[in-house]
Amino acid sequence: MPRTIAFGYSNHCNIRCRHCVAADAIYENSTMDLSRAREIIAEMAEARVQGVSFTAGEPLIYLDDIAELINLCQGFGIYTRVVTNSFWGKTAESADRYVEKLKNVGLSQLRLSFSRWHQENVPLTSVLNVTKSCQKNGLNYFVSFVTDFSQNDDVYEQYLRRHNLKFFPEPIIFAGRAKDFARTPIHTDYQANCCPMNPYLAPNLDMYACCDAGSHFSNTNFFHLGNINDSSIDELFTRSETNRLYSHIRNMGISTLASFAGFKTREIVGYRKCELCEKLFNSKDLLATLESQQDSGLNTWYR
Ligand code: SF4
Ligand code: SF4
Question: I want to staple 95 with a disulfide (CB 3.0 to 4.6 A). Which of 33, 119, 129, 159 is the partner?
């Protein structure tokens, strides 16, 4: 499995989306020291990390720092992505200025966050300016269309289609500021819900096995791998790769784990993936039960 990581240089953001999953985390309002971040990139290269995605708050508030780190990654042959809210695309000129700089330092791809919540703060035209500039400058991009699958989002999806933008829907995660959002009921097919689990390095140098809701499992801290001031990056990746329950999440999937743990089938199909994951792994009792079975019962729970 190639080693990739979500790199949280800082969790500062210049806007305040109502659905932000990065908000209210325990590591709020911190930024890495730039020289330490340089060392970390070098350590990641040594640990054979092949892809770094700069994320957390809004990385491009720190354009010069992030550009330097991207360039460092390029020197090590590491694929890079920046996740941004496109605040910097207000005009075609400002979009070009950023895109040209990112392209020159070797950025591989831009991921543009887009949703009815982001767009309360950033005009639609900013996202459009950035995509046009990417096309003009030959920088790979895609739009990450965060949605709760309600009709409210139709107009946003139509905008993306009307402008022929490359986009992929991403389900909203009900964590952080969105944790109390009303959930529309969902009834899916009985899906495996296997999860590749991309690790996440937070600005306070804590590393987690999951870059999405996983750093919010505060009852059990199930996905916390350690802090890179205490362990090497290679050790923390190895921890993630060898944990038996994480392997079951990747290969067996959350639905089968929930069924094994005694959840009713008709309840399983009503959960979103990360919610079901939270039910299973943010409960000390359930976690203890699953851990006791990780090398025995769960190993034989295959078709
Ligand atoms: S969702 Fe992204 S852009 Fe919005 S407040 Fe959170 S970090 Fe900032
Ligand atoms: S299902 Fe679990 S491991 Fe996968 S992204 Fe959601 S919280 Fe993380």
Answer: 129
| Ligand with smallest separation from the Cα of 59 | 1
Burial of 4 per CB tally in 10 Å (0-12, 13-18, 19+): buried
Pocket test residue of 220, 254, 282, 286 for ligand 2, highest count of atoms within 8 A of CB:
254
Category of 149 on φ-ψ map: left (φ > 0), alpha (ψ -120 to 50) or beta: left
Report pLDDT digits (tens) over 218-235: 899 999 999 999 999 999
The answer to whether the pTM exceeds 0.85 is yes
In this predicted model, what pLDDT tens digit does every residue of 252-274 receive, in sequence order?
Answer: 999 999 999 999 999 999 998 99
Domains along the chain with CATH numbers: 3-184 (3.20.20.70), 252-300 (no CATH)
CA distance 164 to 157: 11
Q: Which atom of ligand 2 is nearest to the CA of 173?
A: 6
Q: Which two tokens stand for residue 150?
A: 């309600």
